[in-house]
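Question thread 4412

I'm putting together a teaching handout and wanted feedback from people who do this every day. The idea is simple: show students a protein as raw sequence, then show them the structure tokens that encode its fold, then repeat with a second protein so they can compare. Below is the first pair exactly as I plan to print it.
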Amino acid sequence: MTINAWLKAAQKDLSTANIDSAQLDAQLLLSATLYKPREYLLAHSDQQLLDNELSQANKWLKRRIKREPIAYILGHKEFYGRDFIVSPNVLIPRPESESIIEILKELKPETIVDIGTGSGSLAISAKLELPDSRVIATDISEDALQMARQNANSLNAEITFVVSDLLSGIKTITSDTPVAIVANLPYVDKTWEASPETKFEPNLALFADDGGLKLIKKLILQAKKKLRPKDHLILEADKRQHKQVTEYAKKHGFKFAQMDELIVRYTLRA
């Protein structure tokens, strides 16, 4: 079977499975199988696939048809222009979260605390984009922290990792310089309709009680005790939740400062 024939057949199978990105996914799977860029597939469309290549590509294709995310099949995901190792132990980094890095680059805080770091994509990207900042990353999952450390080592990012339930494991983060707490916490309500891919991701990193806001509210209360006036709290949440999150944050001493798609930023009032 040629490269072109496999791609056409795979795209058809993926489309039948209601996967919108069928063409791209087929190309990514075969590209990874051949250890070649996607451009190679187009330039060598008549190349015959070897038996072992066909076997590997078909094995991955079957997993994708079952709606397993491409990132877990291939073991990595790009975030803010860098490649991060991922596994079912961590949430797959989303491009929507890249807005947090843009906000941090504008604020230039000297200390950044990433809560629920998962793969470490936010903390590591922040450190590499703001090398003069001190970056602390926490997660309640030791498995997640192990992966985050692996990513930090491969990308040469100096991060302090802490096993912690939100901020509870950090004694103090106050200083004479600006601090920003960032968090992409679980905020999905279990009653919401979700894509089939999410069943492969860790429930601990996706779902939260209280309409998805239990952990966000808990962090707001903790952050109030840790931050100084004018320090920043940057959260990711669904747009449907922004009004409720903002009302809760204001009630507990924070002032609304910025909104960008899924991201909201608050500062602690004096």
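The second pair follows. I'd like the answer to focus on this one:
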Amino acid sequence: MKLGEKLSQCWLMIQGNLFPWLQEELGPLTEKQQQLITVLELSRVEEFIPSYHGYVGRPQDDRCAIARSFIAKAVYNMGTTSQLLDRLGCDKVLRRICGWEKVSDIPSESTFSRAFSEFSSSELAHLRS
């Protein structure tokens, strides 16, 4: 299948199935939220995050949700992690898109910084398959 055909199929699935379902769950979506959801759906960032389940010691905060937030920070053109955390704290829809139900579920700024550093050193921003 050609790349254009595959992207067209993905877009139809996102627009025809995913957006309506999410709007039913979350309410109306802004254009920026739709843009973020599209980037997340196409990038499938979760597939590039190593799993640490089953290891001894304190479990790492959900790296997939933090990775989605890493992408949200870029899509929303936020310059600092502090701006991202402020937005996650007051924007319920963004918070849920990223993977957290409650404000209290969001990790600390230092956890975000460590995770973002890991993502940067692992070249997560240059997703490869």
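Top answer:
Good format. For the second protein you could add a caption like this: The chain has one domain: 3-47+61-126. Residues 3-47+61-126 form one domain.
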